[in-house]
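Cross-check.
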Amino acid sequence: MRVKRRIAGWFAVLACTVGLLAGCSRERLHQQESYVFGTRVEILTWDASEEHSRAAVSEVLREFDRLHRAYHAWEPSELTSLNSAIAAGQQNIPVSPELATMLSDAKAIAAKGDELFDPALGELIALWGFHTDTFVPTHPDPAKLAAITKAHPQMADLTIVDNKVSSRNRAVQLDLGGYGKGYALDRAAAILKAHGVNNALINIGGNVLALGSKGDHPWRVGIQHPREPRPLASLPLRDGEAIGTSGDYQRFFELDGVRYCHLLDPRTGMPARGTQAVTVLITPRANAGTLSDAASKPVYLGGERWREYAKRFGIDHALRVDADGKVEVTRALNDRLQYGDKIKAAKIVD
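Predicted model, tokenized:
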């Protein structure tokens, strides 16, 4: 039995970052890094004083830490308290206004994507072993897997009114891992703007949001190749745009040569198959960061119907790498991409 595990949350953004640092005046570009949400975080700011930049970014990082602690899926948090209450059959459970807003938004996104984005699958995620810091790859108990899948927990089971949550299904166990990084991007953008920092690139484990530009040029980021340690392509990311990727290479394990990724299909209870990676670019709009994270899930799980799901969310810029490594890309995104060396031509879809 061969066991392998890898967690790799990013694009090839770092490759682009190195180029930025090498080619720019260091007095104008400031970089700070941290580790939160179980992944690496990088924030670049441009044309702000170092003191001003550090003060703004420090507040952002404090906010990230708050969000991490408040909505952790398995360590004691407001979210785990809510999950315990749901499992006990309680109704009209009081939650913070922020959590109520997040859950209402997540419920709406789930509905638009046929519940393929499903933050109610926390118990299933735990069963597959992804709710731990000391990971041991294993096959879940078949009876437990069948029971959870039959119970079919979904966001539609929730009712959120006046900051109170009820669930008609006790199997609902919330995990905001597919939503929280995007939400944090939007919070970071708001904080930076409040500090007068209008040119920045925020990267949370591969979910990236751009503010302003890097001088006379837009920020530039890369899309990670899902099977090789190099970029698949790079592209400019303009003011207010966000980009997110869901891939089977980001968090997975292998048993007996079979890859099991953390992206679970609520229809089967199994790790998703058929797609290596999906990248979506969200053009400037409210909550662009959140959408870059959450909307990538139904696009990924949609398989051959990926373009249909992207359109449901008003996404014109999207790319899919199928199980065989073939690349499909929308025309709008293809026009922005610079492909890496030795990358085969992508199939353009409208």
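Residues 1-25 have pLDDT under 50 and may be disordered. The radius of gyration is 20 Å. Passed to J.P. for a second look.
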